[in-house]
Amino acid sequence: MQKVTLVGAGGKMGFRLTQNLKNSDYEMAYLEISPQGMQKLGEKGIVVTSAGNCIPEADIVILAVPDVALSMVSGEMIPMMKSGALVVTLDPAAALAGKLFSRSDVSYFITHPAHPSIFNWESEEEKMKDHFGGIAAKQSIVCALMSGTDDDYLKGEILARTFYGPIHRSHRITVEQMGLLEPALVETLASTCIYVIRQGLDEVIKRGVPAEAARDFLLGHLRIQMAVLFNELPGAVFSDAANKALQRGLKEFIKDDWRKVFEPENVRDQIASIT
Questions:
Q1: How many CA atoms lie within 13 A of 95 on its CB side?
Q2: What is the DSSP-derived secondary structure letter of residue 64?
C-alpha cells in the first residue's frame, strides 16, 4: 500500500481530492493549516497530522495549494521527502515558472482535470449537474511527467485517476503543452470570451429583454453553436446569415493578432502573472 500525503487537504481543490482519496486503497495522511479547512476535514472524520510525521515516509506528496503559494510550500515540503518519492502538483504554472523546489532524487508529476464536457449526455440528473467533475460525471484529465521514469508516470496517473474519478480519458502530454492549455487556451482566451458573452447577456437585459427569455435564448444558441463548431453534428453548418454576422463580429471586436496568447513569451508572461 502506497503512502500518500495530501498537502492543503482542506482547501478548495484539496478538499475535492480528499473526498475521493479517503476511501481509496492508499494509506493517506492529510495536512492543513487553515482553521476553516481543518473544520471541514473534521466534519468528515479526517484527522490532520503534521508534516514531520508523514512527509518523510510518503511515497507520494500531493501539493494541492494555490499557485502563488507553491514556491513557499514546495520549499518546505520537498526537502523533507525521501529519495525516490514522487511530487504531484495540480497545475503546470509553478513548474513552468521555475517556482517548484528542485531535487534531482525525487520525481515530478503534474495533472489537471478537463472537467466534464459540455457534451456530457449522461442521463442521470446527478451526473448532469456535476459540472466540476470528481463526483459523478466522467471527465478527462491531462498528465505530464516533469522528471522521472515511466514507472513514476504510471504511479502518478493511477493516483490522478483515483482523485479525479470517474475518468473518461487520460491524456499524456508535456508540461509545456499543458501550459498552452492552461492558462493560455482555457483561461486567457476562453474565459475572456465567455465573460464577454455573459456581459452581453446583462446588456440586452438592461435594454429591456426579459431576463429569463434572454438567458434561455442565449444558452440554447450556445449549445447548437458549440455542437456545430466542435463537430458534434457532422455536416451541420451555420446559416449564411449567421456566417455574415460572425464575420462582422470578428472585424468589429476581435483583434487580428489574438493568437499571440499562444506565443512562448506571452505564455510565460501569463504564468508569471498568476504565480
A1: 25
A2: -
Q: Which amino acid is at 175?
A: V
**Is pTM beyond 0.85 here?**
yes
Angle between helices 211-229 and 192-206 (to 10 degrees): 150
- The neighbour count for residue 257, using CB atoms within 10 Å, is 8
Query: In terms of Cα–Cα distance, which of 44, 63, 70 is closest to 4?
Result: 63
Per-residue pLDDT of the chain (275 residues; tens, 9 = 90+): 999 999 999 999 999 999 999 999 999 999 999 999 999 999 999 999 999 999 999 999 999 999 999 999 999 999 999 999 999 999 999 999 999 999 999 999 999 999 999 988 787 888 888 888 998 999 999 999 999 999 999 999 999 999 999 999 999 999 999 999 999 999 999 999 999 999 999 999 999 999 999 999 999 999 999 999 999 999 999 999 999 999 999 999 999 999 999 999 999 999 999 98
Q: What is the rounded end-to-end Cα distance, in angstroms, of the chain?
A: 34
CA distance 62 to 85: 11
46: Cβ–Cβ under 8 A, 6 or more apart, which residues?
Answer: 9, 18, 22, 30
Residue 135 contacts by C-beta under 8 Å, 6 or more apart in sequence?
19, 126
Angle between helix axes 35-43 and 12-21 (nearest 10 degrees) is 20
Q: Phi, psi (5° rounding) for residue 246?
A: -60, -45
The grid cell for 132 is 466540476
Element (H or E) spanning 231, and its range? none
Contact by Cβ (8 Å): 164, 19: no
